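Design job #97: recover the sequence.
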């Protein structure tokens, strides 16, 4: 049995006071959560989550990083800096980074490699736009995004990574992929990796992301190839997030 992992992506939300209340709420409800749980927070709040979550059952991480190790990259943050703050995970290739900041498959592959070089675990996001889905290219798009990483880091690198299938049309829109739609893409991803390395494929945690809520999480997470979720909006409310964590 693969472990289930639920990760919150706070995006650019929060304040010291709001985070304090949210973290307290999540910690208070963790006793009956069996899945792995993490929160990926804005950089300035890493020290806060490190101090609040050290020794707890909740891990933490960042939402982005520089592909470079150090140097003249004003405003950027390296993997080793994230490691200094105890991050376990770093999200790479989120569709908002790809679409709003022009991150290409090649840049995402570099970032994935940078996370692993620091000994942290990347959460690699892949997924198609609505136009791509309607054009029948979902599998081709997801395969291309995965191939960029496999070409650079090798299929074995996925043994120390988490994947998140996030159809772009389902992120923050309230439109969730149906469990069957999501399972079909998850099975495609696992099958593609199985063809390269069966052991890596069986152990690989593939999260689903896109408008997951307490009300749809059980059905999504009960699909054979869905191993938890990457949660945006619902991770900003402790009760909503915990309901999803319990569903995993
Ligand atoms: C996300 O930000 O990765 C995400 C899935 O957002 P939401 O849950 O709000 O759709």
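Job complete. Output follows.
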């Amino acid at each position: 049995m693969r472990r289930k992992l639920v990760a919150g992506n706070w995006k650019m939300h929060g304040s010291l006071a709001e985070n304090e209340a949210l973290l307290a709420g999540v910690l208070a409800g963790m006793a009956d959560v069996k899945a792995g749980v993490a929160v990926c927070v804005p950089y300035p709040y890493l020290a806060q989550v490190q101090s609040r979550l050290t020794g707890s059952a909740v891990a933490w991480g960042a939402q982005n990083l520089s592909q470079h190790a150090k140097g003249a990259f004003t405003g950027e943050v390296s993997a080793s800096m994230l490691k200094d703050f105890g991050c376990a995970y770093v999200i790479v290739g989120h569709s908002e980074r790809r679409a709003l900041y022009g991150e290409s498959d090649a840049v995402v592959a570099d970032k994935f490699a940078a996370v692993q070089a620091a000994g942290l675990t990347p959460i690699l996001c892949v997924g198609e736009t609505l136009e791509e889905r309607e054009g029948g290219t979902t599998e081709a798009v997801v395969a291309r995004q995965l191939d960029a990483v496999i070409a650079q880091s090798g299929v074995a690198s996925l043994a120390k990574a988490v994947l998140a299938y996030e159809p772009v049309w389902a992120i923050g829109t309230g439109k969730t992929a149906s469990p069957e739609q999501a399972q079909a893409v998850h099975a495609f991803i696992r099958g593609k990796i199985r063809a390269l390395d069966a052991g890596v494929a069986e152990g690989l945690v593939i999260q689903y992301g896109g408008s997951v809520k307490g009300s749809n999480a059980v059905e999504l997470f009960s699909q054979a190839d869905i191993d938890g979720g990457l949660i945006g909006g619902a991770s900003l409310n402790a009760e909503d997030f915990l309901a999803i964590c319990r569903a995993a």
